[in-house]
Amino acid sequence: MFLDFFYALRQEGIPVSIQEWRALLTSLEHGLHRDSLDRFYGIARACLVKTEAHYDAFDRAFLRVFEGVEGALPITDALLDWLREARDLPELTAEQWEKLKELSTTDLMDQFDKTLREQKERHDGGSRWVGTGGSSPYGNSGRHPSGIRVGGEGRSRSAMKVAESRRYLGYRTDITLDIRQMVMALRRLRQLTRTGSATELDLEETIDKTCRNAGEIELEFRPPRRNDVRLLLMLDVGGTMDPYTQLVGQLLSAMKQTHGLRDFRFYYFHNCIYDRIFTHPWLRRQDSVGLGQLFRELDGRWKLMVVGDAAMHPAELLQSYGNIDHTEAVESTGLDCLQMVRQRYPRAVWMNPDPPRAWGSRSTQVIGKIFPMFHLSVSGLEDAVKTLVGARTDKAA
Amino acid sequence: MTRKFIQFQGTPEYVTSAALQDAVNVAIALERPLLLKGEPGTGKTVLAGHVARALGMKLLTWHIKSTSKAQDGLYVYDTVQRLNDSRFGGGDVADIRRYIRLGPLGQSFASPERVVLLIDEIDKADLEFPNDLLRELDEMQFTIMETSDTIRAQNRPVVMITSNNEKELPDAFLRRCIFHFIDFPDREQMTEIVAVHHKQLDEKLLEQVLIKFFWLREQPEFRKKPSTSELVDWISALLRGGVTLEQLEKTVPFVGVLLKKEQDVRVLDRTLKAKGAPPTTWSQLGPRYSQ
């Protein structure tokens, strides 16, 4: 069962190493879990999980492996005392309350006692408490039939309860994000170089030179380290992108907050990039720049991030004059234009706000072959940034 | 194999969850650093002080800044002082040991008894900072280059590290840590926490205070949600201002104690104008809060 748990965790994507697993085993040897599943839950999580983003995955694995196994605590008077003091937990629903009211406390205690005794006598598997659904103060007549809870002290919740309530869902990184998280992800977008005028005192070099100079001070300067990343952002607006307006707006403000980029520009387009892009989301011709001019102004050192759902009619992508806006008849196909853009900017990514399971459409597939495509979420953005500043990818068409 | 361990159970002034106690105890037993994360104001930094007090150990604190270097935590060789002494004559310049000052980590190793070392806000420092500490934290010893003295921990200190998540910590570092994420306290826990700080608080008043507080936290438009420490301050303000239950039911007085951003105050004004009055019962906050 133990190894099952290890592999269940790895299956859920938690990178548990042997080192961490051994830490858990050592603490179990020390008896820190005090023979309780709840404590084990806490200890296992503290040893094995290193970020709150994985808490939810941990809960899922824990549920799967330990479902039905309940706290193997010895039954003592203290436990009965505790039960007597038991107060209502806020998690009870009105329905459960109604059920509860049907039972008096004495009935309840009797029944609990009986169940326990039966359990002891039968002793199947040793550590299984099957409660009688809905008849105890902690009963949960739902999926997890854990009758009377035996576990934890005072207000501590049972491990199963915690695991089941999936309270850490909000900390998962693969769901979409707020501005601050975006800024944090974008901070990685940097390549430090020393260019420009030498204004910073190079202390080590100065000392070295001074020593060589027999102690006569000789100052040495060097250019300060600066971020060398130029970022070009292209945003799809309107149509199918409307549900994501807020998200894209957040990304844009995060970009603007990302100080230290050497240069940053953003343009808009609708559905697909054709021969011109727009400086304003209204997409009027007078606010537009031709691709040729853009290519002249911004060279291949610029990194390109396209944000769009890549969902369009195949004709918009593959046919001449495919532009959805007929006043903008263009001979080259959308696909040609996209390939031109990609060739000009080898470091490019496509951020798709649709979840990856919705990337099945033909246009998405085609565009995904031209640009490395990432989901617009914390982890997706981090991966995209790695692609932008990391080793060059071979995905260029 | 059972050994007797010092167990941390929380202190009367600090309310802990069972999971947090477990994490602390595992860290103590395995002699590994405990990494604490959590929303601001959930008591990450304070915990170290309470652990130290509960275990009867001394607390050493190392506040990390963006300029902190791992070396600073071990020792600093005060070359400028030595140069100054050599030129103007102030003590024995030949004895380099006089110019070596131990940093917090160095002190915690050198201390004859076991201490609690708090490395506060480790994410403030450079990305490589945690990696630079790996060896020292593993072996609990280091060598002072200038004098070839080795400082070895006689008692491995209880190391607690806090992080506000501003930077990712390196995997190699994380593997060596015990990790705990401090949840934002739920309604029950919060009642306990408040009781620790304000012992004689009227029950009805407290309930209203908490309803308002959790209601404010539920507002999606707020940029900065009020935290526990702000709640405690707010209650002090309410008590000193002599706010009555009736007033509290209608408005949110001294809102500046809870909300620190101008936009948030404006959002609240707008919400109050639209809705009339803040909620007065838990059920108005939705199913998560109602009993």
Account of the protein in words:
The complex is a heterodimer of chains A (397) and B (291). Chain A has 397 residues and is an alpha/beta fold. Chain A is 41% helix and 11% strand. Chain A is built from 16 helices and eleven strands. In chain A, helix 15 (362-370) links the parallel strand 10 (348-352) and strand 11 (373-375). The radius of gyration of chain A is 31 Å and the shape is flat. The longest helix of chain B is centred in the C-terminal third of the chain and has 16 residues, at 203-218. Chain B starts with 17 loop residues before the first helix and ends in a 16-residue tail after the last helix. Chain B has a five-stranded parallel beta sheet, with helices on both faces. In chain B, a hairpin with a 4-residue loop joins strand 6 (141-144) and strand 7. At the A-B interface, helix 2 and helix 3 of A face helix 1, helix 7, strand 9 and helix 8 of B.
Main features:
heterodimer, A: 397 residues, alpha/beta, five-stranded parallel β-sheet, two-stranded antiparallel ribbon, 16 helices, 11 strands, 41% helix, 11% strand, flat, disordered C terminus, B: 291 residues, Rossmann fold, 2 domains, 9 strands
Outline:
The complex is a heterodimer of chains A (397) and B (291). By secondary structure, chain A is α/β, with parallel strands linked by helices. Chain A has 16 helices and eleven strands.
- Major sheet strand order of chain A: 6-5-9-10-11
- Describe the main β-sheet of chain A briefly: 5 strands, parallel
What is the correct CATH architecture of the largest domain in chain B? 3-Layer(aba) Sandwich
- DSSP E strands of chain A, number: 11
Broad CATH class of the largest domain in chain A: Alpha Beta
Domains of chain A, number:
4
Level of helix content of chain B? Answer: 40-55%
How many domain modules of chain B?
2
Principal-axis shape of chain A = flat
Query: Which fold name fills CATH's third level, the topology of the largest domain in chain A?
Result: Rossmann fold
Cα radius of gyration of chain A in angstroms: 31 Å
Radius of gyration of chain B: 24 Å
Overall mean pLDDT of chain A stands at 70
Mean pLDDT score of chain B? 84
Query: How do the helices and strands follow one another from N- to C-terminus of chain B?
Result: HEHEHEHEHEHEEEHEHHHHHH
Q: What is the number of E strands of chain B?
A: 9
CATH class of the largest domain in chain B: Alpha Beta
Poorly predicted sequence stretches spanning 5 or more consecutive residues of chain A: 70-90, 119-157, 393-397
Name of the CATH homologous superfamily of the largest domain in chain B:
P-loop containing nucleotide triphosphate hydrolases
How far apart the termini of chain B lie comes to 45 Å
